[in-house]
């Protein structure tokens, strides 16, 4: 079990904010994944989107794959997925191709044993860092077609604003709140083992997935791609948890890296499709997709300062993206 379960077990208001406050994934990103999959003789029969939340990407996957398996551990999310995907246009175009089940990714080999060795591509969209990574990766490897199955995991939650003055105000807002969230979880741990598990778990996201071990006995042609990470002034370590809990979460992530010799590590500037433009309301939606306390003095004070400089205008920025792709042996 992950140290923090079901963060994405949320109501409609949260998912409304999520639609506004997270990037609309460009077609070029999906095409990059499909090209990789196709280059390894991957088939386009069955794709699995675990931890699907509201099934945001499911219909786009259904445009390419014959069948889409959609899973999530939350009863509330599963009901929302069913409602969203039961609309007449969806049913007309893809209804027969969608299969929805409640399950944690880690539990799929038990809850859905029929998936073993049948999934052509697993699409982990901004969710892998909410799992217990070792059983999650074991589950992924067991589901994928061997050989040629493709594992995909990506994350793109840390927005960077171009205007330095505004970004300096924006950067600490979310980390200062998420730090309180993690500190509460840390202080609630009763043993040193639980605290270590929490740290190891949190570093998955903070390391841009570099701490995710891709077993070389099970996978080949591993690609770790960082898009827009070289944007001047961007540092994922301070954009997520930041300097607010350095006594718990170390800034030096090198000891936690699981990047192996032979893996293809790529850094690209690719703003097209990942650029942000919005006013204070859109920035608020971005913030509300994170564990913040909207009524806390910390948040209200910082937000008032941001409102004072953004005003009625719009700001521009970019979404840095972490992407892993690997092929099942």
Write a structural description.
The chain is globular and about 55 Å long. Helix content is 38%, strand content 18%. It has helices spanning 12-21, 27-39, 58-62, 75-84, 88-94, 108-111, 133-143, 164-170, 173-188, 192-206, 236-240, 280-287, 297-310, and strands spanning 46-49, 67-72, 98-102, 121-125, 150-155, 160-161, 219-227, 264-268, 275-278, 315-318, 321-328. It has an 8-stranded mixed sheet, sandwiched between helices. The protein has a 3-stranded antiparallel sheet with strand order 6-10-9. The chain has 13 helices and 11 strands. The longest helix has 16 residues, at 173-188. Helix 11 (236-240) links the parallel strand 7 (219-227) and strand 8 (264-268). The protein is of the alpha/beta class and 329 residues long. 39% of the residues are buried. Residues 49-132 form the Methyltransferase domain. Keywords: Methyltransferase, Transferase. It comes from Pseudocercospora fijiensis (strain CIRAD86) (Black leaf streak disease fungus).
Keywords:
methyltransferase activity; transferase; Methyltransf_25; three-stranded antiparallel β-sheet; globular; SAM-dependent_MTases_sf; 13 helices; eight-stranded mixed β-sheet; Methyltransferase domain-containing protein
């Amino acid at each position: 079990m992950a140290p923090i379960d079901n963060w994405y077990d949320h109501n409609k208001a949260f998912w409304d904010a999520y639609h506004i406050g997270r990037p609309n994934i460009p077609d070029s990103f999906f095409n990059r994944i499909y090209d990789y999959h196709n280059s390894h003789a991957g088939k386009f029969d069955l794709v699995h989107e675990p931890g699907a939340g509201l099934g945001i990407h499911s219909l786009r996957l259904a445009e390419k794959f014959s069948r889409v398996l959609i899973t999530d551990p939350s009863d509330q999310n599963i009901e929302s997925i069913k409602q969203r995907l039961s609309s007449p246009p969806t049913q007309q175009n893809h209804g027969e191709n969608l299969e929805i089940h409640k399950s944690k990714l880690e539990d799929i080999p038990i809850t859905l044993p029929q998936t073993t060795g049948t999934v052509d591509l697993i699409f982990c969209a901004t969710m892998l860092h909410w799992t217990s990574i070792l059983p999650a990766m074991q589950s992924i490897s067991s589901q994928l077609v061997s050989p040629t199955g493709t594992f995909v995991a990506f994350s793109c939650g840390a927005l960077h604003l171009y205007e330095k003055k505004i970004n300096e105000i924006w950067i600490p807002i979310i980390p200062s709140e998420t730090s309180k969230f993690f500190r509460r979880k840390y202080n609630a741990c009763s043993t040193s083992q639980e605290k270590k598990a929490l740290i190891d778990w949190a570093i998955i996201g903070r390391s841009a997935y570099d701490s995710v071990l891709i077993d070389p006995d099970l996978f080949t042609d591993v690609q770790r791609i960082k898009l827009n990470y070289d944007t001047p002034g961007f540092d994922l370590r301070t954009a997520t948890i930041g300097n607010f809990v350095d006594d718990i979460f170390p800034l030096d992530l090198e000891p936690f890296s699981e990047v192996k010799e032979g893996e293809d590590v790529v850094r690209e500037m690719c703003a097209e499709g990942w650029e942000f433009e919005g006013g204070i309301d859109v920035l608020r939606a971005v913030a509300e997709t994170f564990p913040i306390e909207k009524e806390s003095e910390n948040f209200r004070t910082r937000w008032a300062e941001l409102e004072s400089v953004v005003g009625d205008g719009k700001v521009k920025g970019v979404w840095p993206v972490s992407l892993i792709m690997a092929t099942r042996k």
